[in-house]
Amino acid sequence: MAKSTFYTVVSEAIRDFAIHGFDSQDRLEHWMARLEAAMSDVFLPQHVVQRKLAEQLTRIFEKTVGRPGQIMRRHPGVSEFTIRQIAPRLRAELDRRILANVTLITLNRRRSREQALQRFAGWATSIPIGGSRAVDKTDEAEKVRRSIAGLSFVDRRATIDQGHKLVAAIHDIIGIDSGAIALIWRHVKEGPPAYDSRPDHVARDGKIFVIRDNWAMKAGFMKLDGRQYYDEVPAVAQEINCRCWAEYLTNLRDLPPAMLTVAGKNELARVRALIRAAA
To answer: Which of 151, 155, 180, 194 is 20 to 30 A distant from 48 in Cα terms?
Structure first.
């Protein structure tokens, strides 16, 4: 006999309680066990989910790392040689993100299972012995079904969000390893249908944030000039569904003059003079 679908089992359980009510713990445990078993129809096997997740994040990784033009847009002045040197760290970040997302999806599944069973148990134990004709069987079944049916969307949304976080982490590694001293926050207005731009992210658009303990600060070449350190705010893509990105600055010439100290201005003038002499 074909395995019953989750919705069918939910409907049967609700009809049973509508007739008999919560007249015994055995009845409740019987249906709870059947519901939990039927949930297997809803979920893809764990190994399939992990494979699909790895494939998707790997595509995002290869698309990001394999486009020198996109990398140069966010890291002006960084050479392809530097990118090749950093490559092993970038690959390790991909592996770390895959494992993190598998854990996240596993937790989402566990929570959704528990919520569905809790919703059903709460409803079932409210029905008096002898049942009730006032039960809207279709409506109750739909409420329980929706708590599970939406999980595939939650899985997809989590994977998409982890994709944004992976891209942000890749660029952060490139920026830090190539000696970035600051970054410009770039706000992306487009997002998922239900996403509203965060006002504080909109306010950061175009602003410069300083990377703490960078080489120019240590050398006394630059100052905050009223700016914040980057680690004082949530990083780009750190918050859920955030698609903002950062343009990393590695040279003194990329900074506004007000952010340069006297020593920094002298150093910049010295370097420019050397470049002119070599031309």
So the answer is: 194
What single string gives the DSSP state of each residue in the chain?
Answer: -PPPPHHHHHHHHHHHHHHH-S--HHHHHHHHHHHHHHGGGTSPPHHHHHHHHHHHHHHHHHHHHT-HHHHHHHSTT--HHHHHHHHHHHHHHHHHHHHHHHHHHHHHHHHHHHHHHHHHHHHHTTSPTT--TT--HHHHHHHHHHHHHTHHHHHHHHHHHHHHHHHHHHHHHHHHHTT--EEEEE------TT----HHHHHHTT-EEEPTT-HHHHTT-B--TTPEEGGGSPPTTTSTT---EEEEE-SGGGS-GGGB-HHHHHHHHHHHHHHHHH-
Mean pLDDT split into 10-residue runs, the chain, 279 residues:
66 88 93 86 73 88 80 80 84 88 80 83 88 69 64 68 89 92 88 69 95 96 96 92 91 95 95 86
* Prediction pTM value: 0.73
Domain ranges of the chain: 1-178, 180-279
Angstrom distance (rounded) from CA 10 to CA 225:
63
DSSP secondary structure of 62-74: HHHHT-HHHHHHH
Which pLDDT does position 146 carry in this prediction?
Answer: 66
pLDDT at residue 141, rounded to an integer = 65
Tell me the C-alpha distance between 22 and 129, whole Å: 5
